[in-house]
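Can anyone check this?
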Amino acid sequence: MGGLLLPRRPAGSIFARWRTVASLAQQNHHLQARWFSCSSSRFAENPAKLAQKERTKLPDTPCRTRFAPSPTGYLHLGSLRTALFNYLLARATGGQFVLRIEDTDQSRLVPDAERKLYQDLKWAGLSWDEGPDVNGPFGPYRQSERLPLYHEHADKLLSEGKAYRCFCTPEALEEHKRAANEAGSPTLYPGTCSHVSPEESNERAAKGEKFAIRFKSSKTPVRIQDLVYNYYQKKEFEDDYIIIKRDGFPTYHFANVVDDKHMEITHVIRGAEWLISTPKHVELYNAFGWKPPQFAHLGLLVDEKRQKLSKRHSGVSMNWYQERNILPETLLNFVALLGWRGRDPATVVKKPGQNVDVMSLQEMVDSFNLKFSKGDIIVSLSKLSFFQKEHLKDFPTKLISDPALLASYQSRLVNPFVEFIHKVEAARQNPNATTTAGLGIESLGEPLPEPKILEIPHVGELIKVLMKSAETESGTEAANQLASGEQKATPAQLYPGFFPLKYLFWSPSQKALEDYLLQSVDLDSVTLHDKPASLAQAMAYLEKELSEVEGDAWNEGALNKILAERKNDIGFIPKGQDKPTKNTWKFCRWAILAGEQGFSIPLSMVILGQKETVRRLNAAKFAAEGAVAVDPVRSI
């Protein structure tokens, strides 16, 4: 008997289709699982990047940092950068910033270097919590005053067999180096005295034989970790280097390790040129059983040719910036971005037109992190001009609020300039003067009896203009040249700020007003409220409008609004053009400043005062009539 026969399912049956769909869904599930698995590993952060991010985070605990210059020279751009970054890390974490003077190289000390160092750091706006001049719990802060501490630690290494006395004379060591160089061999210390027994060493030292103390370095290169360069290890092991010199003073390598430990320094930020020496320092920490601080080595500063900045480079010395009236805020902002990546734009609440790279010192503190660039840093002084322009915007207000700072700039900039102005006036009154070339004496009318630009608050604007000149320190020289007739350069070259400011000390002469009109305006094309008018009528209109401004409204903001509302009231056709334009501002600048570029018209009006401004508008009416009379085009 045959078995039960079941009907065959057609290939396209619902069951077959279901099985096919289920199979595809299962395959799709596996594909999705594989895709998500790949995606998660693909988009997960690289472990190296995670480690770098961790290294660049600010510590959660207060940091103690130090700036430890040697008074063998003066503060320069690179050392200011080192000081700034250590300062920022201490302030950003609520820690302490220490100033330590490393004066162990007694033969190379510069007599006034330490005094000038304090001056330059304070000029730049940096302060310290501990140092030679402010004391502190870990002093003294001058290495030459800490010699017993270094000898104590050197003796400890001697007693533990981690260091030894070296009785080799300087002459013998030089002969060894010479012979090694000639043979093409390494010039490492040959270890001559490393075999001297402790007993013999003690005996020779007791008899007064001169010696240095050398650290017994490991024959295996030490691996160190850096916050910028991560892990670093030299290929060759360290020499048995000197830690105490024959004169009893410690070497830099030894003293800075002992001091950083005893001053509880947590972080050391310094130039990359010290990276190669850091294994020596870490090996000393290990020998004492101490935990090293965290190191961050900054890229070398190089010029545009990628050569290391030399002392001859114009932007190295602090004097170079001070003599050119670069603001301390400008210099710190410039220096901060020489290797630091700056603040994250996403975290900054920006004002309209604000550049996130423009920062005050406090803003640097608030946004500081340990994100430093690797490699050489090109110093481009063109960026300095940008930062100077930005920081000068708020400088007049800051200046007026700081009497000591104002007095300093008064003495250094304003007084020589006023002396120069007096000499120019003397030359103006002397028709036989031979030293007025380039001054445009004929453009000057009568002097203002009491120029308000010399008064608070306007003097801040004057100082701002004078600071833009790199030659303002030559103002006294310019005045002397005017008096003596020995004019090597025009006063205009010595004081570029003279021309934008001259009509705030003198009224414009009628000739200056007429000359400007004849060169720039078609006098037959003037309109007032879209109707033909004479320029004298247009000036009379402005005179009336501005004379009616009430006293309290005579301020920069209100005047700006008044003139903006009347911008299109006066029209004209510029000389050499066919199309008319409307620009009341242009005629205000002509009437008040003879068209000279300089301060804004509202600010110039405020500085001159309402009475003088209205008087100049009235004088402009007569100058307009005079220009009409002498216009050569109209007389044809």
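Reply from J.R.: I decoded it. The mean pLDDT is 85.
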